[in-house]
Design goal:
mainly alpha; 613 residues
Length: 613
């Protein structure tokens, strides 16, 4: 294939003699129009060898164009590195744009050392704030934190040649928001120091960055620092919007700091940072969660009445928050009144969440008929129930002894297409197990797996543990063992300490202590760690069946491995030894109780009776 002929560069040299101030850029513009960086390099060599004088400025601009062309070609990093070396060999100074291009390209290729070499080579008088921003951003992203902070410190010095600007702020606030700099934690002093210096230079975070920084500080349990940062921006006349204040209010609420929440709300209004419905929603939500419902209602009335200097119209979330708060303190009648008010005053229609809050309130108060009336009203208004509605009503019925009604309601909802979730099934299964109706519980379990109607819901660990416990309580521990094997094979659901405790308890109560000990050995083999319930169950089982010395030995072994008994464990053993008149061993255990942090007071009268007799 024939190589394309190069353009005729003969007339280009005449431009060098021009006195026009734009002449240094003319060769750059010519080079930019060439087909490739290699062709531009040949052009550079031509004008350099044919120019009457060495105009370094023109040569620098021309080489900048070569860099630009190379940056758009395949494998730009290696090409640019070679061209950079060529420019150094030929003593061609870098332009700031050329240096910026090289830094960015080397940064993308993770060749940070080459990028820093470019920084060192560039004439300090040519360096600009934009150039520093590019380098600082690269250093932060590459984990070169110390170098980034050093360069930033240069920019922040009084009278610096390259002072920070808003883009610098964007780079720094983004880095601060990451909170962890490649494993290096940011200290409070560093954050506060950087923010203060940037504010002194009139550099403020935008709303997104400020909100992000506040959130990150709060997540790292530095709410005080988040408060200081926000107020420093306010004092420096930076732009602060409600969303940033809302972020801080959320975390103050989680911390229960209502004093500062109210103070911040007041400051927002004074500084014309208008609180919105979300702002009030945060305050109301945390007040209700802290049982301060009366205070929340006062704030709600002020919000609607314009007492804060503005009128904020509540939305369905606001009403739901208050209705839920009222129901949680037993004021569900007031919750109903508020639901009527939301319709009449604000033309705000109740949704599924509204009805769920009220249903939960009436169910917990034992007023199941009222909860069912609400469900009927919900359907009448074409507000569709969800799995929470179902679980709430089913749970309420079960808690108040209406298990058959709960099962019937549950089946009706499944027929209507609302199949329920694992929580709903678990509520029903537990209720049936509690009344020893294990056959009905197992039938429901089969329905849960979709065996009967194809509407499957995957059983979870709670499902299996509830059923295994139920089986063991009616003497069907062998079936419980089979179910444990099934949970592994069918659902890839691994047994936990509770699973094993249920089985151990079942075998102990059946008097098959060897089987219980076998389950315990299997538990250890599978690295499922026993707890104090495991210990107490086995000790109690052994003692009830005359294996008191074995129980004491097992107890000592567990203590040596770091598993200390509770009051009931000691009491069981002490009573057992007293019953066989081994008072010395009983006293030894009695003395050990205090050392292990258990109060021995309750067992004293019983021990005295044994000693007297």
């Amino acid at each position: 294939m024939e190589t394309p002929a190069l353009p005729n560069f003969t007339s280009s040299t005449q431009v060098f003699s021009s006195s026009s101030p734009s002449s240094p850029r003319i060769f750059r513009n010519i080079a930019r129009r060439l087909a490739s960086s290699s062709q531009a390099l040949e052009f550079f060599d031509y004008i350099r060898s044919n120019s009457p004088s060495q105009d370094l400025k023109s040569l620098s601009f021309t080489f900048q164009a070569i860099f630009e062309l190379a940056g758009r070609e395949p494998d730009p990093q290696n090409t640019l590195l070679e061209l950079y070396r060529t420019s150094k060999e030929r003593n061609i100074p870098l332009t700031v744009k050329g240096a910026t291009l090289l830094v960015r390209c080397f940064g993308r290729a993770e060749r940070v050392d080459e990028a820093l070499a470019v920084v060192d080579e560039l004439d300090p008088s040519l360096k600009s704030t934009h150039f520093y921003n590019v380098v600082v951003d690269l250093l932060f992203r590459s984990g070169r934190i110390v170098e980034a902070l050093n360069m930033l410190d240069e920019m922040l010095q009084p009278g610096a040649h390259c002072p920070p600007n808003d883009i610098t702020g964007g780079v720094i606030f983004a880095a601060l928001s990451r909170m962890e700099w490649f494993g290096r934690s940011i200290s409070d002093e560093e954050i506060f120091g950087l923010v203060s210096k940037l504010l002194d230079h009139g550099v403020f975070p935008d709303t997104f960055k400020l909100t992000q920084l506040i959130t990150k500080l709060c997540r790292n349990k530095k709410i005080g620092r988040a408060w200081d940062v926000l107020h420093d921006v306010m004092k420096a006349d930076g732009t602060v919007k409600a969303v940033s204040c809302n972020a801080l209010l959320t975390w103050l609420g989680r911390d229960g700091d209502f004093e500062r929440m109210k103070k911040l709300m007041t400051e927002m209004i004074e500084m014309d940072i208008q609180p919105n419905v979300v702002t009030f929603g945060i305050l109301l939500n945390h007040m209700c969660k802290s049982w301060r419902v009366d205070e929340a209602l006062e704030v709600f009335e002020k919000m609607k009445g314009g007492s804060y200097g503005l009128f904020v119209e509540p939305n369905v979330i606001t009403y739901n928050t208050l209705i839920d708060g009222l129901c949680k303190v037993g004021k569900q009648e007031e919750g109903l009144t508020l639901m009527d008010q939301m319709r009449s005053e604000n033309k705000c229609m109740p949704n599924t969440v509204t009805y769920n809050c009220l249903s939960d309130g009436f169910c917990k108060a034992g007023e199941i008929e009222r909860a069912q009336d609400l469900f009927d009203q919900m359907n009448k208004e074409r507000v569709f129930p969800d799995v929470i509605t179902l679980a709430t009503l089913v749970g309420g019925m079960c808690r108040h002894g209406r298990i058959n009604s709960a099962v019937q309601f549950f089946n009706e909802m499944r027929s209507a297409g609302l199949k329920g979730d694992a929580l709903t099934f678990n509520i029903l299964i537990k209720a049936l197990c509690n009344v020893n109706n294990i056959d009905k519980a197992m039938e429901l379990f089969e329905k849960m797996k979709g065996v009967t109607d194809g509407l499957s819901v995957e059983p979870d660990l709670i499902t299996y543990n509830t059923l295994i416990d139920g089986l063991c309580k009616v003497g069907k521990q062998e079936e419980g063992l089979t179910l444990m094997d099934q949970m592994r094979s069918e659902n890839k659901c691994m047994p936990d300490t509770v699973t094993y405790n249920c089985l151990i308890d079942g075998f102990c109560k059946a008097g098959t202590i060897e089987r219980a000990q076998g389950i315990f050995d299997q538990m250890n083999k599978e690295r499922v760690f026993p707890d104090v319930i495991t210990l107490t169950t086995l000790v109690g089982g052994m003692c009830r069946h005359g294996r008191i010395n074995s129980a004491a030995q097992f107890f000592d072994e567990m203590r040596s491995e770091g598993l200390k008994g509770k009051h009931v464990t000691f009491t069981t053993l002490i009573k057992a030894f007293c019953s066989v008149y081994n008072i010395d061993k009983a006293m030894e255990l009695f003395n050990q109780m205090s050392k292990d942090g258990c109060s021995p007071d309750a067992i004293v009268p019983q021990m005295q009776l044994f000693i007297i007799h």
